[in-house]
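User: Please predict structures.

Assistant: First:
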Amino acid sequence: MKYFLAFAAILAMLCAAAAPGDEPSLFAEGIVSTADDESGFALTSDGKTAFFGKVSPTTAGDPMRVICVTRRDETGRWTTPEIAPFSGRYHDMGPALTPDGARLYFISDRPNGDPQKHDLNIWYVDRIASGWSEPAALGAPVNSPAREYGVSVAANGTLYFASNRAGGKGSFDIYRCKLENGEYKTVENLGETVNTKGAELHPAISPDESILVFTALGRDDEIVGVHKAYARGDLYVSFRKSGSWTTARNCGAPINSGGGESWPAFSADGTGLFFTSDRGFATYRLPHRMTWPQLERGLTSTLNGMGNIYQVNAAILRGLDR
């Protein structure tokens, strides 16, 4: 009986972790979401392996960005993260798994044919018997001489990505490219219902290709905290109907906050939404004078204003389809 109860407890833990609620919650606080700066997330379909980004602190230049991996052990707990075997030398970010888990895409500035050039491109690794293959870059027309910044893939293989290539609506636009006979051939701009003169980044497509969530910077309806010194970003959603995309709208609270939200991602079955947020103890104006102990606790806590990974039930998006 005691072994049955122990198994039931572990099963309950796994099920609870796999079912995000209607309010955003920190993912694996203390392991994945910490006082460090985390951004970008991908979870395997069995819920046992998670990939996420870590960003180094910096006051000048580009921070170091690496992709990390953690695994759930037999007790249901997440293990101490490691740097993913394909990351750790270049700026790598935005892990995105295919729904079947066979391939992992990511953004990297590693050289792509020109050792002197380090622009951002879409790279991938394939799952092999020994782990992951060597990274390879997608070719044209997906990658371009410009920068690609964010990638997601539907169950049918269609890629959604952001790029600041020539001919777009604004600084960065979101594009899609269908998989045709095993190749990516034609890139399509998603048009003015999604893209604006501003920046649209980090697309996340649901597995069935019916819902698109992405980051937009500086729109008039962006939710802000104490002040709006610069565009921090909110998540927006658009729905695909009869082959067209509805006018994107702000996801609103509780997904967005006065902090910055970015890097959305769907679970493999489309029921969960993961995203990055830097909401913290000082996002909004405080109701009272802060004491030194309170400040120290806030600065060293998970909610110190650095990025964390949140999860929420993706069904909450359906309420925005109107």
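Second:
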Amino acid sequence: MSSALALDLAQITKTYKSGSLEVPALQGVDLRVERGEYVAIMGPSGSGKSTMMNIIGCLDRPTTGSYHLDGEDVSRLDDNALATIRLRKLGFVFQGFNLLARTDALKNVALPLFYAGIGARERDRRAMATLQEVGLADRARHKPSELSGGQQQRVAIARALVNDPAVLLADEPTGNLDTRTSADIMSLFDALHAGGRTIIMVTHDESIARNARRIVRLLDGRIVADDAVAGDRSFTSF
């Protein structure tokens, strides 16, 4: 039976070691995110937000504490098991898009399905349906160099969604986009959230964060605020 929680971090710590020096990156973090929530994680450089995102994304393990993703304890899984979890339960959207330059949009979106062992015809069907979801089906045969920055990010979002992940993770998703295109991408995230997607976004930009429904703030490896977003959540620029 799947959990009502998309993710549950309990007393998470992460300490990095350099010789005899120990550097605490996270110190006793508790975070619960229900299915369908839209959460922004903020904090200054060195606050621990990147470390927290890596743990949530199963790219790293906590030093202590437990992490349940979609009801499954992933805290102590080995590298192969974590890779499988990432493929099945997580979708990643990055600032730099990370698309294959010589491959068209359809094949870029279908890539996670290839790694999941899905047949070519079904891969193409699902990839096209996901491109339709992000409003880019008419660019399915275009390569990244033939797409605008906003269109490339839509392709990247479609790739993150194609496996129907439990959680969509977005790391500075508008960092390489101008203000107008950023607003367009934020509108897409809003539509995905309205459709029931669980979204966790890391950003340094307050105006981007306020498009989420909840903002979690980190400082010195601890959560110092966790608040619902009040008022108008539409994109604004300072």
